[in-house]
Amino acid sequence: MDAYTQPINVAIVAFILLAFVIWIPWLIYTYRKYGFLPLSTTLISFSFIFYFFSALFLVILPLPSIRDTCSMQEPETQHYSLVPFRFISDIFENSGIVWTQPWTYVHLFEQTAFYQAFFNFLLLIPFGVYLRHFLKQKKQWAIALGITFVLTLFYEMTQVTGIFGYYNCAYRIFDVDDLLLNTLGGIVGFFIAPAVLALFPSKKKINEKADILLKLDEVGSMSVLIAIAMDLFCTDIATQIFLHYTSVNEVYEFLVRSVSLFVFFFVIPILWNGRTIGTFIMRFRYDSKVSRSATVYRLFKRFVAIYVTFFITFVIKVLNQSQISMDSPYYHVSYFLQIGTMMLYGIVTIVLFIHIMLVVFGKGKRRFYCDEASDLYTTKKDKF
Questions:
Q1: Are residues 311 and 266 in contact, defined by beta-carbon separation less than 8 angstroms?
Q2: Per-residue pLDDT at 308
Q3: Residue 50, Cβ neighbours under 10 Å: how many?
């Protein structure tokens, strides 16, 4: 079983690492496209990534311990098998069945050749199901057949070329039976996919919900949170670039970050009709629903609300890093100062975290404090 469990364990690790990297881009893409996070789409997409890694590692693992695989093989070792359906004769060979004794037929299912053929058939059945989800229509079966054949051909070529030349000899053979069984499994999966996909909402229903949200002009709290995060990221990038070419000290960094926040959270939305870089990517903007002057005033209030949070955390950071000389009579007080600032920083972090969770999972009953304080509204409609 190690031949199967090891590749799957490696696939789990690779999937976790990749999922960590693509999670935020996926959220941005999904909320930008639908306005909400369809759990079915997320589950199908991420399970496809995990499946793809698992299938790939099942094909190429375990790897040889050395790159000189030729030295591990007998001279003139054959690295391919081009006789189709040879797996059938391999299953019957040494199976011990007697045709006149049906109870001996069970021995066919005990043969190593049977397990190899059966698992090769199963390997790409999930791939066929995923193809049906992506291609949607049954009449696309020929395209699915071609894609499945190309994928299994890629697997076989990877093996016979020693991962495209990384090893000087193939460490697994090119087997035409594997090619046939993999392709057959993929096309079977394509045709039985409706039974599996019926467990999930269709793309049509997901798009209908997205259209309803668009007509209701509702912007989800997660979309707002992602937009704020992207604006803060842009602020940090601009600050780091500016500080890279200038002298750095705490006062100067404070001033640069303050100006960056002012530009990204106040100047840009004024000039861009209530849009920040983050809200533009997430396809919404801020509006007061009153007048232009009211919108400008409320955008300033929103900037102040965000800036106050930055100011508090920056002051806490400076106090926590402050050093008092051992000769100073206030040296012992520094311990209490550091403990107090650490506790204050922890309180601020916990409060912000709880606030974000209440808004994100509040089903629209709450808004983020900066939007609530400024009385700004989110809208997907353009202002003419």
A1: no
A2: 92
A3: 17
